[in-house]
Amino acid sequence: MQYITPGKYAVLGFFADSHKTTKTDRLMATQIGNYFCCHTCGRRPRADEKFTPDHQPPSCIFTELPHELGYSHQFWEFKYGGWLFQTTNITIPQSLGVNYTSSVFGEKQFLYPQCRECSNKQGSVCRQMLNK
Question: Model pTM greater than 0.70?
């Protein structure tokens, strides 16, 4: 399940409206990663490191109904500043004073901050899955 579901350190992700990421997506992933770290390994960023916006579930399996994988963490969705976010920490939307709803993993794709090493490993896992 590692690399095809949000990692152990996944706290906050934002809605992905495309399989391609934008400059804004990359900036947002880095900002969230600087605060919460890599969602997969929990590593804090180096001084000049940029995080990769990691699609969760990965695009390689998104069309295969990944919510059937049985990912057990509870998620909540909320809107803030015109963005749709997903979190495992209910105190985030509560502290912002915004409405939130329960979210099911795999119904939508969200982008989570991921370090370059974990991103490369995930790419290898996806290639192996596609080649089966």
Answer: yes
